[in-house]
Sequence to fold (203 residues):
Amino acid sequence: MYKTIIFDVDGTILDTERAVLHSLQAVLAEEGLTYELAELRFVLGITGAAALEQLNILDEERILANWIEREASFIDEVEVFDGIHKVLHAIPESGVVTSKNSLEMDKGFYPFGIHDHFEAIVCASDTENHKPHPDPLLKSLEILEREPHEVIYIGDSSYDMKCAHAAGVHFGLALWGAKSTEGFEAAECVFEKPEDILAYVVK
Fold:
């Protein structure tokens, strides 16, 4: 049982996969770079800067700004996953640790009006190191004044799981976002739907 639930955003709270991948594909195409969506899936769960670095993009700052703007144009295709609202209303304390930076949060998270549910929100702009490094999650624990054993971090990517375990925190797989348990054998919990989380919360 856990006193606090900390969530990832993309693929866990928000269904952003289409917006993230299609916007990146479009921005890269404008630069004369052609990628299939499957080739870009690795970017899900890491910072935009890290994604562009792995793609060997030279003008990273300009391309990242274009990507953020293009992704914002897809916001009508982004939805809060079914069941998330119910869970956020039911749990006593929660937080967010995300690889989105502050600008991405302003354009692609806060407009959904769910941020008031969280006692701590840590984004990529808040720490020098990012997932899978434990620092973002450790910062969240510090803000929440919680010990690692009191919380569970719920996400949909291997970066999320590595971040959790590096911080000494249990990891819960958001199967509604991850789609598969392959590669997540070390997860302490697997949640098929958001409502399943409620059975693990200290009332």
Q: What stands out?
A: The chain has a mean pLDDT of 96. The longest strand covers residues 151-155. The radius of gyration is 16 Å.
